[in-house]
Amino acid sequence: MDKPLMLITGGSQGIGAATALLAAQAGYNICFSYHSQASFAQQISTQLTELGAEVLYVQADVSIEADVLNLFDQIDTRFGRIDALINNAGILRKKLVVDIDVKELEKLFGVNVIGSFICAREAIKRMAVSRGGKGGVIVNVSSIASRVGSPFEYIDYAATKGAIDTFTLGLAKEVVAEGIRVNAVRPGIIQTEIHAKGGEPGRIERLKSVIPMQRAGTAEEVAKAILWLVSDDSSYTTGHLLDVGGGR
């Protein structure tokens, strides 16, 4: 039987890359998008190939519909199937609400929310049994921020993840009869490059004391939760928000 295909947006670093590596080990072929770091994408692609996966990586800004359509067109041509979508691509910038720029806010919601909607729409078109698909799984990467609000840090980012939580709950009910399960994983403070990209490389050290487990999580720990939600071990789980936050 052909290997199932997993699509991971933002798969060249962090949680996306860790998920790709675990999925390859679990027997998936992998397609992942990356935004700008082609060298990281190539490195991950090489590692995935060494694990026996067939790999496709595509430059895409998920907030741009044409980029997403091109991504799925390439999947159709190369694999002719999609079995799992991981909506992982996301951005943040540390900023108080009083200092927010509208263009930055539009970009944040474009990537974190609209991008997930567009990718899910295209995946559903291919997965839905009423359209000739065989079902599938969608996992949205949300955040503990959606629950705590991230005051004085990332209220705008937290709001995008609140939208993702609601999206997950509603979509799960909308497509369950199509053979598609939809869940979200909500990471807490995780050791990835996103903190530095967001303007605070020392954030983990500053905040680890508020985590009951007194440490940040790893990208692989989040990836393991994602792989469980994708697997048949969670076959009776849909519309669930799974916290991976060290007890926070």
Features:
alpha/beta, Rossmann fold, two-stranded parallel sheet, 9 strands, oxidoreductase, Short-chain dehydrogenase, NAD(P)-bd_dom_sf
Structure description:
With about 250 residues, this protein is α/β, with parallel strands linked by helices. The protein has a single domain (about 5-245), classed as 3-Layer(aba) Sandwich (Rossmann fold). The chain has nine helices and nine strands. A seven-stranded parallel beta sheet has the order 3-2-1-4-5-6-9, with helices on both faces. A two-stranded parallel sheet has the order 7-8. Helix 4 links the parallel strand 4 and strand 5 (about 135-140). The chain is globular, with a radius of gyration of 17 Å. The model has no long low-confidence stretch (mean pLDDT about 95). InterPro entries: NAD(P)-bd_dom_sf, Sc_DH/Rdtase_CS, SDR_fam. It comes from Cellvibrio zantedeschiae. Belongs to the short-chain dehydrogenases/reductases (SDR) family. This is Short-chain dehydrogenase.
